[in-house]
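Quick illustration, no need to memorize.
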Amino acid sequence: MSATETLVRTHKYRLYPSKKQEAIFTEWLETCRRLYNYFVRQRFDHWEIEKQLPKGYRTYISYFDQCKQLPELKKDNHYLKRAYAAVLVNVAKRVDKTFLNFIREISKGNSKYGKPKFKFRLCYNSFTYPQPGIKHQKFRIEDNRIYLGKIGHVKIIVDKDFPNRAILKTCTIKREVNQWYAHISFTQIVSIPELQINENKAIGIDLGIKTYGVLSNGKEIKNPKWLQAMEKKLVREQKNLSRKKKGSKNWKKQLIKLSKIYRKIRLQRNDFLHKETTKLANDYDLIVLEDLRISNLIRNSRLAKNISNVSWGIFQNLLSYKVNEKGKKLLKVNPRNTSQICSNCGEMVRKSLKIRIHECPNCNIVLDRDLNAAKNILQKGLNELRSSIDNTVGLTGSACGEVSVETQGSKKFVKTTNKPKHG
């Protein structure tokens, strides 16, 4: 029995605007940036006054309050009239989301949470059309053209189609260095298969830097080290940029040249992450990872650059939704002592980070430190899964055991099947 779920997805398409359309894109970005900074300043000025009052007496500027200001602002600022109204409304929504996050963190007592920043010219690179209506369509795709309100038809490369019954939600026009892209989000109803876990297809993964990941079955995911491969070129181009006068034509040309290198690294990384996560989601029923606090790990100045380069957070997010769509399961376990405990006998074997081989004095097993950690991660995940399913013997009874779980409302139904052993 399968369940249905509404998922939100985004397709990215390359745009080829004419010079006139590109000039409009650039003008709208500057318009949105100025409006964003105006709304942020307005919120801060109001917040500085209100925060001195008790909580029960404070007032807040809402998203709707700022939207109501747009007609008056257009009278005094002619450049706002040239932009599509719904695009300006989306700017107010971005400010509202950012400021509410700031207020929520402050109310939790997180004083280190930074204030929303004002956007500089090179930092604001996108504007968004909201969901197209029935009568007044703000955007629509027609063959190899996309129609954008107040801009017209722009050439687009549609290299992937939308699924059947997909409902378009938003279209974000984004500038990436000297290229333009349309990010079109949509919702679709998909059928999620019933959760079935075969212990033979369960895997634990120890994420690392030297080797991207070590699987509990002994396989390794190599780290391509995209940033290290381009580091010398980056240093050279960065030096060339620093020698030029900021804001000059040569400085802008060099900035684009440098940005292209970073874009290439980002695309290589994303391609690698998508390919590896798809392989894992196809091959395994249960995938267990360490529940890493990445924001804490990058505080280590010696490892921060390498940890950021491997993008563990993106890897986990991609793997999570791909596993979910296939009716499989991703678990995150506490990483405490996964590299110290012997995966064979459970003996605690203390070792520093520089020791890369696990040698157990109790059972005399010798294996790679990361492989030992991956085996412990898998075992922790299996233990958590067993404890979460009441009266289940599917995983514990046989290595070939399968567990299927159905949820209906607040009740949980467990089906267990044990395949007979051969021989």
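The mean pLDDT is 84.
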